[in-house]
UniProtKB/TrEMBL annotation:
<dbReference type="InterPro" id="IPR017907">
    <property type="entry name" value="Znf_RING_CS"/>
</dbReference>
<keyword id="KW-0862">Zinc</keyword>
<keyword id="KW-0479">Metal-binding</keyword>
<dbReference type="Pfam" id="PF13639">
    <property type="entry name" value="zf-RING_2"/>
</dbReference>
<dbReference type="InterPro" id="IPR051435">
    <property type="entry name" value="RING_finger_E3_ubiq-ligases"/>
</dbReference>
<feature type="domain" description="RING-type">
    <location>
        <begin position="10"/>
        <end position="57"/>
    </location>
</feature>
<dbReference type="GO" id="GO:0061630">
    <property type="term" value="F:ubiquitin protein ligase activity"/>
</dbReference>
<dbReference type="InterPro" id="IPR001841">
    <property type="entry name" value="Znf_RING"/>
</dbReference>
<dbReference type="GO" id="GO:0008270">
    <property type="term" value="F:zinc ion binding"/>
</dbReference>
<dbReference type="InterPro" id="IPR013083">
    <property type="entry name" value="Znf_RING/FYVE/PHD"/>
</dbReference>
<keyword id="KW-0863">Zinc-finger</keyword>
<protein>
    <recommendedName>
        <fullName>RING-type domain-containing protein</fullName>
    </recommendedName>
</protein>
<dbReference type="GO" id="GO:0016567">
    <property type="term" value="P:protein ubiquitination"/>
</dbReference>
């Protein structure tokens, strides 16, 4: 089954998944985010490493001896398509020989995701979770 373009990016940072830095990891609730965002959202509480899913609020717990991304499964459906998608984009880029590259993401979709992210960050602040500089810049 093919994935839509929005499934190929982390809905927290809005960056495309990759096989090196933005590895798609699955929380116990089965929602997927990049490992870097999960690490940034994780908290050590009572000797357990936890992360609250920004979509459904399900809390995923792991042992603190492992990094959170390292203890979660990779979303193999996305992982398998990362290379295929990159190759397709390179071929389109070369074949089209255009000066500007058209994007597959609509601006209105990104605005909607940005609004959801801003609401999520406000809720995190209200729960007294520390917010990083990067998250503050988004607001």
């Amino acid at each position: 089954m093919g994935l839509m373009s929005e499934d190929m990016e982390c809905c927290v940072c809005l960056q495309p998944y990759s096989r090196r830095e933005k590895i798609p990891r699955v929380l116990h609730c089965e929602h997927t985010f990049c490992g870097l965002c999960l690490q940034a959202m994780s908290r050590l509480q009572s000797g357990v490493l936890t992360v609250c899913c920004p979509l459904c609020r399900w809390i995923t717990c792991t042992e603190p001896s492992l990094t959170l991304p390292g203890s979660l499964w990779v979303n193999t459906e996305i992982w398998d398509q990362i290379l295929d998608r990159q190759q397709e984009e390179e071929e389109e880029w070369k074949g089209a020989n255009r000066q500007t590259r058209t994007t597959t993401h609509s601006p209105s979709r990104h605005c909607g995701l940005r609004l959801k992210l801003q609401n999520f960050l406000r809720r995190m602040k209200s729960l007294n979770f520390p917010i990083s500089k990067q998250e503050i810049l988004i607001e």
